[in-house]
Amino acid sequence: xxxxxxxxxxxxxxxxxxxxxxxxxxxxxxxxxxxxxxxxxxxxxxxxxxxxxxxxxxxxxxxxxxxxxxxxxxxxxxxxxxxxxxxxxxxxxxxxxxx
Amino acid sequence: xxxxxxxxxxxxxxxxxxxxxxxxxxxxxxxxxxxxxxxxxxxxxxxxxxxxxxxxxxxxxxxxxxxxxxxxxxxxxxxxxxxxxxxxxxxxxxxxxxxxxxxxxxxxxxxxxxxxxxxxxxxxxxxxxxxxxxxxxxxxxxxxxxxxxxxxxxxxxxxxxxxxxxxxxxxxxxxxxxxxxxxxxxxxxxxxxxxxxxxxxxxxxxxxxxxxxxxxxxxxxxxxxxxxxxxxxxxxxxxxxxxxxxxxxxxxxxxxxxxxxxxxxxxxxxxxxxxxxxxxxxxxxxxxxxxxxxxxxxxxxxxxxxxxxxxxxxxxxxxxxxxxxxxxxxxxxxxxxxxxxxxxxxxxxxxxxxxxxxxxxxxxxxxxxxxxxxxxxxxxxxxxxxxxxxxxxxxxxxxxxxxxxxxxxxxxxxxxxxxxxxxxxxxxxxxxxxxxxxxxxxxxxxxxxxxxxxxxxxxxxxxxxxxxxxxxxxxxxxxxxxxxxxxxxxxxxxxxxxxxxxxxxxxxxxxxxxxxxxxxxxxxxxxxxxxxxxxxxxxxxxxxxxxxxxxxxxxxxxxxxxxxxxxxxxxxxxxxxxxxxxxxxxxxxxxxxxxxxxxxxxxxxxxxxxxxxxxxxxxxxxxxxxxxxxxxxxxxxxxxxxxxxxxxxxxxxxxxxxxxxxxxxxxx
Amino acid sequence: xxxxxxxxxxxxxxxxxxxxxxxxxxxxxxxxxxxxxxxxxxxxxxxxxxxxxxxxxxxxxxxxxxxxxxxxxxxxxxxxxxxxxxxxxxxxxxxxxxxxxxxxxxxxxxxxxxxxxxxxxxxxxxxxxxxxxxxxxxxxxxxxxxxxxxxxxxxxxxxxxxxxxxxxxxxxxxxxxxxxxxxxxxxxxxxxxxxxxxxxxxxxxxxxxxxxxxxxxxxxxxxxxxxxxxxxxxxxxxxxxxxxxxxxxxxxxxxxxxxxxxxxxxxxxxxxxxxxxxxxxxxxxxxxxxxxxxxxxxxxxxxxxxxxxxxxxxxxxxxxxxxxxxxxxxxxxxxxxxxxxxxxxxxxxxxxxxxxxxxxxxxxxxxxxxxxxxxxxxxxxxxxxxxxxxxxxxxxxxxxxxxxxxxxxxxxxxxxxxxxxxxxxxxxxxxxxxxxxxxxxxxxxxxxxxxxxxxxxxxxxxxxxxxxxxxxxxxxxxxxxxxxxxxxxxxxxxxxxxxxxxxxxxxxxxxxxxxxxxxxxxxxxxx
Amino acid sequence: xxxxxxxxxxxxxxxxxxxxxxxxxxxxxxxxxxxxxxxxxxxxxxxxxxxxxxxxxxxxxxxxxxxxxxxxxxxxxxxxxxxxxxxxxxxxxxxxxxxxxxxxxxxxxxxxxxxxxxxxxxxxxxxxxxxxxxxxxxxxxxxxxxxxxxxxxxxxxxxxxxxxxxxxxxxxxxxxxxxxxxxxxxxxxxxxxxxxxxxxxxxxxxxxxxxxxxxxxxxxxxxx
Amino acid sequence: xxxxxxxxxxxxxxxxxxxxxxxxxxxxxxxxxxxxxxxxxxxxxxxxxxxxxxxxxxxxxxxxxxxxxxxxxxxxxxxxxxxxxxxxxxxxxxxxxxxxxxxxxxxxxxxxxxxxxxxxxxxxxxxxxxxxxxxxxxxxxxxxxxxxxxxxxxxxxxxxxxxxxxxxxxxxxxxxxxxxxxxxxxxxxxxxxxxxxxxxxxxxxxxxxxxxxxxxxxxxxxxxxxxxxxxxxxxxxxxxxxxxxxxxxxxxxxxxxxxxxxxxxxxxxxxxxxxxxxxxxxxxxxxxxxxxxxxxxxxxxxxxxxxxxxxxxxxxxxxxxxxxxxxxxxxxxxxxxxxxxxxxxxxxxxxxxxxxxxxxxxxxxxxxxxxxxxxxxxxxxxxxxxxxxxxxxxxxxxxxxxxxxxxxxxxxxxxxxxxxxxxxxxxxxxxxxxxxxxxxxxxxxxxxxxxxxxxxxxxxxxxxxxxxxxxxxxxxxxxxxxxxxxxxxxxxxxxxxxxxxxxxxxxxxxxxxxxxx
Lengths: 99, 668, 527, 224, 517
Fold this sequence. Notes:
The complex is a heteropentamer. Chain B contains 27 helices and 2 strands. Chain B is mostly helical. Chain B has a two-stranded antiparallel sheet. In chain B, a hairpin with a 6-residue loop joins strand 1 and strand 2. The radius of gyration of chain B is 30 Å and the shape is globular. In chain C, 73% of the residues lie in helices and 3% in strands. Chain C contains 24 helices and 2 strands. In chain C, strands 1-2 form a two-stranded antiparallel sheet. In chain C, strand 1 and strand 2 form a beta hairpin. Chain E is mostly helical. In chain E, helix 9 runs antiparallel to helix 11 and helix 9 packs parallel to helix 12.
């Protein structure tokens, strides 16, 4: 399979993730969509890594995984805190700040 | 030479000193002190002027152009404006006449204005006026001509609205001022044309190079100078202010609006003769307008009923003669007429002032009657002035007016037509002058006259403005709480007596074929003038003219006698017969209305349009409201996007992302 | 290299800062500073060598080296008279404010006054383009606060008005900033960027750049003046300023704009100036007519003076853009700037005095004040007559020179402009008559001025009289400088080759020199 | 063979991705992500990224997803708390934007002039020690060239841990530490439900309380 | 196998700040109140001081660290100084604030330090992997810090919004970096630049330009460039004010730092392409930021919108891709730092003194009641508006000069017009401050009924039963807040009057990019 195929899949996943962020209202799911976007980037990185035959891409992908994990952790932390504060877990309800 | 300069400066500065002393000392100088100060400096100035004249005569004929320079005034960038005086026979003669007449009028005012609360102010203004007038006459270059020109305008304004709480007075003042500024503008523009051609502002320099100015420029320049002259001398179409100017105290009318300021136009044209001789057409304009004015204003004088306004219109008419003369090249004749006119017209005003005082401010001749017995001295003076004005031999006015007409006639061509009009007007002049005399002094005494005969001067219960009926403000009183008539006041009597003397005898200065003192004296000024050398009316013309003039004026008096003394009903009949003409005359040939339609209303409309429409719609709407509205709308749009919806934010981000990617992909 | 100008420049600001500490004596401290600056400037005026057209008392330090900005101050015939006007005007207004009880105790007022004083002086002294723009913009700031805090009108209006004023005028000024920087960057493409005016004047930019930069500068100056039709801020601003502030604002600040045309625009953008001459003249003409028309219809005394300023500044603009051979227009413009400053100062003071007597600043509420206030009336009369450029006043001389300059070049415009002269007499006399003369207004309580009023008013009127007697003084100081500022624009207009112009000659010489140097270097290398 | 694997894995990844954004109980969304991650790991293997693939499965699909599941369980996850005004018209537009983005990305990625994209990339060279993709080679890169990122990543994990603690730990009103002790008791008494007791964590909020949580009608939008 | 050479001296600033973070974290675990509330902030300041000092020490180092992952040059060190100053200010502002108490002091301050560390990594990064790590190391602590005032719904809301939008930005960035890697085959900046400079049509390749686009968006988001700005007002408003302050000034500097290095080192050969895009974004930012700020009654929102506009101005220095542009940007960043510090410090002080929060009414009459707060805010506002004699003016002059010199004249015009429009809101603040009579500084709010002291004004004193109580209101200002305001204001003035020293610094920093003209 040529690299192009992987890239095509990667782009598809990225777009799904981006679309998901736009349509989902539950912050938990939005975090999942962000994961999708980062994973799409990972796929692209690894595909390029293969293409160039260097490890940079793979290392980058590992780092991205770390970052993804960190973002998730913090994101979940915020959600938990909101839940405890009895705030609605729905991004469309968070409109205190506007204008 | 030095003494000429010294006396010139002194002549000029005496009145200024008087002005300043009176202005600053208004609290210190009590009683009539300001009047005496003002009069004293004027006499000093007169003496100095006479000495200047003599000193000038001591110089050789070709040296009688003395320039006295004080300092550089605006001498940069091609200009050579200096604070400089030019003393030559013309200016010296004018100076002497003006200081002389002014002194007398000051003297008259000392008494006449007695009791007015603005006494010191009055003399300060009056002195300032004389200073300005002398500056105008003595100026050595265009700049100070303009300065003096404007100063007399300002002084005139101040004196017209001297009783400044009368709205009629202030309105008349602003009218006079604005029209005079219009004249200033003409003068300045004319100066521009001339300066452009000659490169110098100095009289002598400019006159020397008069030939170098291009034809168009010199004509344009001279016509613009004429505009200045017309405004100041109340010539058509800029004459409307003069009648309204009669709102001022009577000495003011005598001084400014009869003897001195209004004749500045005549002086200007005479002074600028080298330029006018370069431009036939400009000179023609002057002559024709002068002729027009002398006729038109005489017709108006025939019908109006306000004592001072009748005299004012006669002034316009007489100045018309002068303007016609100097524009036609009869310089000396014009100046001569100015000289005689100064005496008899001042005298007439003074006498009128006396009458008005007796009437407690009323000026309407319909209400006057039979003052002859009550005020014999005033009556005498008035008759002398009237005869002189009417041109009855041998009074001064007779000699000078007929000299004017003879010289103009000598130009030939179409100038003859002017002369014809001049003679017809001489008849009208006699007519209205004696209309005045007969109606005011003869007949059954009016209540006021009767009161005076009983030794009691009439005072109104409630002083009212005769024009509007408005109650007068007694603080800035009209005409002051006290009234003064010549019969009871020495200074008034003295001043009028002297003037009466000159009104009779001043003409002897230059009697055709007898003396030509003035001609000789003026020679250095008009040296090189084409017309000055060429125009010498033949004896036939001269004496024929004199005869015709005498005949016309006597005829006028006779007709006046017929109409107003013998058969008063004729007046009504004539009025009925010539109703349209009468209406035209009474309405002053609709000049005020024309000016109003042409200038005042458009300007007012423009002002209103600017104030109410343009400022709101364009200045504030288009330039302020527009951008502000745009920014506000932008703000609303941007902030409505800031909805607080997280997903909307993300969406915008994605949109931005697609946009940026698209842009760069297109470039790829 | 002298320090004199820096002393004059910073004295008022320092005094202003000291005033903050001086508390009760704040007014007097600032006054002392201003007075010293005034005295210093008079000494400069006397000491100034009028026969030399070059800058004198120059201070030149690199301020921000990397941006090519210098702290360069200098005096020449162009700014000398305006500097004296500035120090004089500020001194008078500071004195006036110090005598007013309600502001006398507020040190901040005087701090801002001092700062404003220095800023205006800075704009006049500056010989570096950025420095000029800096001070030009800075001088607005104190007026913002002075109006905001001490304005006489109700608050919401005042805030709106001062914001309008500030933003409106700064739009122009900021455009000018962009233009100024572009000038420095684009003028000398082969050299390090510099903003020193004398360097920039050497070579003209290409016409395309000149055009838009000219428009930026013109926007700034015309708005500041203000000129028709961009005077929209003026009525609001004038209504809302405290009078002493307004007086100095009207008298001094607007003149800096006119000055800017001569200092910066004409020498730097001659082609554009020539190209837009007609437009500028028409704007000036429109300002004259429109300002006059507004002035004789409005009844607010402040606005009469405001619109008369629009008209007067129209005359000044006319002079600046006359571009006549002898430079009469420009010289007249500078003289007229001084004159107008001198008449506006007392005029606003008189408005204050009148308002105190009539209880309102509206003309309809005034009338008949003169009888019990002869001194006030007399002084007002002098001021009014000078304002309407009565011959015999220096204003007349200025107008005479301006109009002759225009007359020489564009005769029709000059003739139309004369309408403004006539209209000026209408609106000034209207104001004089309806306040001083005519029937007594409804609640007028007429009384003459007090000694403390005279302390302010009399010197101002005396200055008018002095200049009326001897206008040659400012004229001769500027004679060598001012015409040369418009020379290149005039040459462009006349179609003369600028190649003969010293600017390009200098450039050519520099090029030749460079080449020679290169050749020398080459020689040096060869062996 | 590789093609089959690729298509299976690719379809799995995409299907998993779609599963994530489906309107579902969040719990299933998480599971869909797990499917996606595992498919992705398979793709990584196909691209000779063994180590990354392993890490993906172990760390990501394993550990991280467990965390997710916990939180979903705790928060109760299920979204239909309330269906009140939402960003209007966003749903349709979102699809449009995503599609546009996809098209652009495809153009960018596939329209490239680089030839290598159409190739299969680096081959397997067993002759070399630590050939491309081997954990050894990767470890080498991590500890030499990418030493600093490697170390920083550890700090990042520390930050995340600290952050999670700060956000999620229970606190007794830190703000009240210095204030009047009586107030504490009042607050304690008023402690609302849903502030994180163990019971709530396990069972979710009782239905009654949930209804209480839903704001009354007519209240201005914007939560409370 | 040999480990890479590590230049510890050059690495020392980073080590110091990271080490300090851990020390602070540990110290925070101690129970003593003195330690938590005083020692920990003090240690933080010491750490930042050491960070700054070591950065100065390494000013001239100019070395690549560990296989060129990081670069230590004047540019990075200059920005480190800015971060340190911002950090110290943030610590001072946080000292007696609510947020650290709510989140525990050790954690709070160590997160702050980590964020500073992330910034230092970011601006030194010469490798996309490092860059991305720095980016996250900077962001993730901030997500947490935004949410630290957990009792306030808006704080959490801002945290979540920031996190989600930030993560979208990160994902975009990393995808873009992946594409760049794919196009150039390198993760090093130098490698990228080399690949781009080589013969071939790589510079116009869609993969490369697509990557450039996504990287631009990712970084632009961080710099609050419109249309990626929408998080800014909400997050600024919701976050605790000290954190907002830090975010506003330091994040902006970091974002522009990395933007400059990325664009002017790695992507310089395609400057024409990204220049045009950034130019357009600059215009959009200037417009959006300035019009958005109009009519805002929340000071923090106002400053947020203004920061969007300022980002637009700053972009001018980036698009030109010249040394002058770099210098101008760096200069303006420093000025931006001090003027915003002054403004936020005053806002914070008023939040603590009144019950009006950051509402502009809280400033009413300040000029007369609190001159030591009013003057700094006045100076800050004037400087933000670009009025002369303040740093903002000089900054704008240098930006415009850079823009014009680079041929971006229309951008210069946009900057000045934007500045003019911005006066409308900056001056309104001054008007409120210097005109109105002062509001009472201490309003007796019932302990149970009052909201948080840093309550959102829109929320008002919400008497809902679920609301936790607030600490008693302070009636007097905190001197450290005033100190920050005054010092920052003085610095703003100094930068406007005598900017030469600062220009010397930015010249060195600008010269770090040798590829530029």
